[in-house]
Amino acid sequence: MTNEKQKTNKRSLFSRLIEGLFDQNPILVQLLGTCPTLATSTSAKNGIGMGLSATAVLILSNLLISLLRKFIPKQVRIAAYIVIISGFVTAIELLIKAFLPSLDASLGLFIPLIVVNCIILARAEAYASKNPPLDSMLDGLFMGLGFTFALGVLGAVRELIGNGTIWEIDVSAGVYPGISFFTQPAGAFVTLGVIIAVVNAVKAFISKRKEGNR
Amino acid sequence: MENKSKSQSTFAYIALTALKLLVICAFIATLVAAVNFITKDRIAYNQKMNTASALSDIYSSDGIIFSVSEDGGYKITDRSGNPVGSCENVNAELDSDVDAVYIIKDGNGEVFGYCVKTSPMGFKDEIDLLVAVNPDLTIKDVKVISLSETKGIGDKIRERDFLDKFKGRKEGFSQSASELKSIIISGATRTSEPVTIAIDSALAQIGKMFGEVAEA
Amino acid sequence: MTDNTQARKFLKMSASPHVNSPVNTRIIMLDVIIALLPILVWSIYVFGMRPLWITLISVASSVVFEYLYRKILKKSNTVGDLSAVVTGMLLAYSLPSTVPLWMPALGSFFAIVIVKQLYGGIGKNILNPALAARVFLFISFSKELSTYAEPHASDVVAGATPLAFLQKGTLPETGLFDMFLGNMPGCIGEISVTLILLGGIYLVARKVITWHIPVSYIATVALLTLVFPAQGAPNVQFMLYELCSGGLMLGAVFMATDYTTSPVTKIGRLIYGAGCGLITVFIRYFGYPEGVSFAILIMNLFTLALDKITAPVKFGGGNKVGEQK
Fold first, then answer.
1. What residues in A contact C118, CB-CB < 8 Å?
2. Is the pTM of this model over 0.80?
3. How far apart are CA C104 and CA C94, in angstroms?
4. What Cα–Cα distance (Å) separates residue C94 from each residue in A158, B15, C189?
5. Using CB atoms, which residue from A71, A95, A183 is nearest to B35?
6. Which domain holds residue A85?
7. CB-CB under 8 Å, C136 with A180
8. Nearest alpha-carbon partner for A57 in A148, A135, A192
9. Distance from CA of A147 to the nearest CA of B (A)
C-alpha cells in the first residue's frame, strides 16, 4: 500500500509541474499578472530574474499562509495575506538590492510591485489557505516556475526580435537593427498574444490526438 | 442569527480578530527588520560604488579611478592602483536641492575639479545625477547614476549625444528658454528637463562655495 | 432529382431580400487605386524612381503575405478583392522616399498579418492596417521615418519639415503654392495636396466615400488652427500651412475613410472626423510635430461606440416591446 501511495505521489509531482508550466500556466492560461509580465519581459534575463523573485515570494508566502490558515480570521484574510506578501517582497527586495545590484537596476520599480502580482494573491486564496504547508509550498514552486517559464520565453522572443540579442549578447554581429517596437509594451502585448495562441494551438492538437487514440 | 449572545461576542470577535492581525503584522515586521539589519551595510556600499563608478567614468580620460574607501568615503587611484590625490566630501551646509559636494584634489593638493550629486524629480521618480564642474566653474560632464524613467524613452538622457551638450557650460538655463527647448529631448521632456535643473543647481552651488556666482 | 442538381449549378437559391448590384469590394478598391495613382506619378517626378520601388515592394509583400496567411491557415483566398493592394499602397504613401527597401515589406507584414488577418480579415480589423503599420515602423525606426529628401534633389535632409517649423511657431521656408502643388519634403503620398483633393473628389463622385469625414476632419483642423495659431504666427497663413502639411490631406481623404474602421452613420462620421481633427491639432501643438496617424488610430477605437450611439431607431422601435407610439 505504501508503494502505491509513493507511486501516486511521484506521478502527481511531475504532473503538477506540467500543470504549472502548461495546463495552468499563470500567465499563458490563467492570464494572471499580465502587468508585471509586460513590463519586465524586455529580455530573457530580466524576465527570468523577475520570475524567480516572484517564485521566491510565492513559495514563502504560500508556506506561511498555509501554516497560519487556521489562525487567520476569515473576514480579514485578504488584509492578512497582503501583509504577509508585502513583508516577503520587502525582504526579497532588500536582499536583491544588497547582493544582486545589477538585477535591481534593471527591474527597479517592479520588484516592489510583486506585492500586487495577482498570481500570488490568487494562489494564497485558492490554494494555500486550504491546503497543508508542504503541498502549498510545492504549489507555489510550480506556479512560480510556470510564471518564470512564460516570462523567460516572452523575454527571449522580445529580446531577439527587438534587439537582436540573446541573454544580452548580440547574435547578429551588428547587422540586425532590432525592431524596437517589441521592446516596448505594445510589442509585448502582440508577442504575448501570439505565444498564447501558439500554446492554445498546441493544446488543441494534443487533445485531438488523445481523442483520436481513444 | 441576530441574538443577544451574538452581539455580546461581536466585540470579543472584533477584538480577537484585531489581535490576530496584530500578531501577524508584528511577526512580519520583525522579519523585515531582521533582513534590513543584515543588508543595510551592503546596500549602502553598493550605492557608494555606483557613485564611485560614475566618478570614474567622468574622470576616466584623466586616468584616475574612484573606489570606496574603508571609512565610507572615496579614494582615488591611478590605473596601476597607486593612490593619487583625494576626494573629500564637503561637510558645509548645502543648498536644499543638492545631496553632496565633493572636492577632487590632485597629488599636490591643487583643486582638480568639483562634483555635485543631486536628485531632481523626473517623470516617475528621482533621477540621481552627478555633475562634474571644472575649477574654472565650467561644466566638465554630467553622469546619470540611476533613473527609473520610462524604458526606451527616459533612457535617452544617458546617451552621449545628449550629455555632451552640457560640456563647457558656464551659465545656468534660467535665462534662455529657447535654448532649453532646443536641448530637451522631445517625447522625454519630463525626464530631460531635470538634467538642466541639475546643471543649474550644480553651477549655483559650486559658484556659491568656491567662486563668483556664475551670472547668465 | 437530376433537374434539381443541374439547376443548382446555374441558379442561386436563397431567401429574400435579393440584392443585385454591380458593386463589390474589388470594384471599390479599384476606384481607390485609380484615385491614388496620380499621387505616385507626381511623387516619382519629385523624388525619382524610389517611390515606385517602395510602392511596388509594399504592394507585392502585402499581397503575398495575405495569400500565404490564408493558404497556411486553410482559409479562403481573399487576395482578389484588392484590399491588400490598397493597404500596400497607402502604407508606401505614408513613408518617406528614403526608407530602406525592406522597411515597407516589414510594415506590410505587420499590417496584413497582425492588424488585419489575425483579427479575422477584411471587415474585422479594429485599426486601419496601413496606418497601424506606419506607426509600428515609426516607433521602431524613428530616425529613418523622420528623414526626408528635398524635392528634386539627390540629397537627404534630416527632417526639418514644414511641421517642425510650425510647431515652433514660425512659418516654413517652402512657399504655400509649392506646398499646395507638391514641391515640399515629406512622405511619398502626402506632398501633393492638389492631387489628393482631386482623388478625393473622384471618390466622392464615384460614391466610394462620402464627404462627411474628410470635410469635418479638415474643417476642424482649419477652425482650430485659425483661431489658435501657435505663438503669434499670422492666422490665415498658419492655418493654410497646417492644412497642407503632415499628411493631413492624405489621412483625411484616404485613411480616415476606411470602411471597416470608421462609423457607418452620417452623424457618426461627422463626429469621427471632428474627433480626428481635434486630436491631430492637440498632438501637433503639445506633443510630436506629427499627429495625424495617432489621431486616426485613436478615433478608430471609438468607431464602435460612435456607431452604437448614433444608430438610427429601428422600424417600429419604441422603448418597450409592443408599445404603441
1. 193
2. no
3. 10
4. 26, 68, 6
5. A95
6. 26-213
7. no
8. A148
9. 22
In tens digits, what is the pLDDT along chain B, a chain of 216 residues? 444 455 567 888 888 888 989 999 999 999 999 999 999 888 888 888 888 888 888 888 777 788 887 777 788 877 777 777 788 887 777 777 788 888 888 777 788 888 888 888 877 678 888 888 888 888 888 888 877 666 556 677 777 777 887 887 777 776 566 677 677 776 677 777 788 888 888 888 887 887 754 444
User: Distance (Å, rounded) from C-alpha B145 to C-alpha C126?
Assistant: 43
- B43: nearest Cα among B68, B65, B26, B66: B68
Report the CATH number of the C25-309 domain.
Answer: 1.10.3430
CB of A56 within 8 A of CB of A49?
no
Sign of CA dihedral B16, B21, B24, B25: negative
Give the other-Cβ count within 10 Å of C312's Cβ.
10
Residue type, A146: G
Give the three cell numbers for residue A166.
540573446
Question: Does residue A78 sit at the B interface (CB-CB below 8 Å)?
Answer: no
C-alpha cell at B103: 572636492
- Cα A22 to the center of its chain, rounded Å: 12
Domain count for chain A? 1
Phi-psi region of C118 (alpha: psi -120 to 50; beta: other; left: phi over 0): alpha
Please state the domain extents for chain C. 25-309
Pick the closest to residue C115 from C97, C93, C137 (CA basis): C137
